[in-house]
Amino acid sequence: PDAYGIIGLGRFGLSLALELTKAGKQVIVLEIEEEKLNAVKDQLENIYPVKAVTEEVLHESGISHCRTAIVCIGKDIESNILVTMSLIELGIPRVIAKATSVNHGKVLEHIGAEAVFPEVEMGERLARSLVSTGTLDFLELCEDFSIANISLTRAFANRSVEEINLRKRFHLNIIVIIRQKRAISEILPNFVVEENDVLVVGGTNDAIRKFEKANE
Amino acid sequence: PDAYGIIGLGRFGLSLALELTKAGKQVIVLEIEEEKLNAVKDQLENIYPVKAVTEEVLHESGISHCRTAIVCIGKDIESNILVTMSLIELGIPRVIAKATSVNHGKVLEHIGAEAVFPEVEMGERLARSLVSTGTLDFLELCEDFSIANISLTRAFANRSVEEINLRKRFHLNIIVIIRQKRAISEILPNFVVEENDVLVVGGTNDAIRKFEKANE
Ligand SMILES: Nc1ncnc2c1ncn2[C@@H]1O[C@H](COP(=O)(O)OP(=O)(O)OP(=O)(O)O)[C@@H](O)[C@H]1O
Ligand SMILES: Nc1ncnc2c1ncn2[C@@H]1O[C@H](COP(=O)(O)OP(=O)(O)OP(=O)(O)O)[C@@H](O)[C@H]1O
Fold it and tell me: Which of A56, A95, A181, B181 could be A113's S-S partner, Cβ–Cβ 3.0 to 4.6 Å?
């Protein structure tokens, strides 16, 4: 069934399990440290403390019937690789595993799993958002189009959208405005923006940078 | 100057340093384990092996004059927090630090730094991309507005934008269409979409989910 098997409840595994659960997915978790499971027993349903991840345990917990399994074991690279191998041998259609180094990742890919590198990927994401706009919330969709969240300063406060004229002056589109955590998507030309409104804009990195400068 | 000070060259710090360097930024790195610095001496310019991160070292290396500093020390939480405090005391405009737990993050924010949680954020990102079939990237801006990249399947190929009628049928806005990594932002009603075009859409999570289902 469309269920997700997660092995290892470190920070990565736990965050993955909680987010999948929030999205309404069925999640089955195997973890060797019982206290980690106890800490979340009211947030996750199918949690199984195990001594080791054996084929028997994978069958009994139902993970062997999951469509996707994610191995989130960290320091114990041997277990990370061997558990991944068992999951692939069981015929689970999609097996993803956390890699702690480039070569570890190569081994995982050779045996048929997809490797993810959480720390490396976050380093890259942070670098990109620092370089482009100085905001932490930034999405570069392709070389010539990015989306950025820009919190308005007094420089633009209390002016109407048509007066600010983002499109002509900065070559940016307003995608949505977030005020007090609520989205305002129907934005008329006479809409007046306020300080701290978050403008979600789309355009080139240069255009975003210019607007950020004007907003200082 | 617009230089970046990085403290700690673990996987997160190294990836951040390399990506910033690739973007043409000046990067200064402090690390206590010399072998880690030797491994990258032909990829990074300003690398300083240190016994400990003191104010003197911060001045001598030039980090005290950086506009942004990122503390990437992991297991040694005491050093992570104290080094962060020193950077803030030195008046560095923006200090970002890697947090290993929620409470660690709260301490960092209390002292004036921005906390990042690489493993937690990657767990969330992976969950979101797993949950949304065909969705390559996803950004939740607030409870009622998210942006998702959806790669079109044959279900919608070769139809015009006005025929698909995303706004009326799915309550979604098309922000931009990405074809062969180039952005098409001026989208007229008669624009015909092709298989594998990436539609970047905005709307509620429910609306996005419905469109993803229709795109299966
Ligand atoms: N053989 C195993 N079977 C199941 N769980 C395991 C096994 N080995 C380790 N784990 C669990 O996997 C989790 C993650 O492993 P570990 O803490 O070593 O990695 P980490 O890289 O520090 O994690 P993170 O960065 O995600 O917090 C831990 O909770 C650990 O108890
Ligand atoms: N006081 C310090 N000053 C400078 N560097 C330090 C200090 N303490 C630790 N480091 C370095 O910071 C780096 C990251 O720390 P550590 O390996 O503990 O974290 P980690 O969470 O496992 O890292 P990552 O997940 O990014 O690989 C290491 O290279 C370590 O040598």
Answer: A95
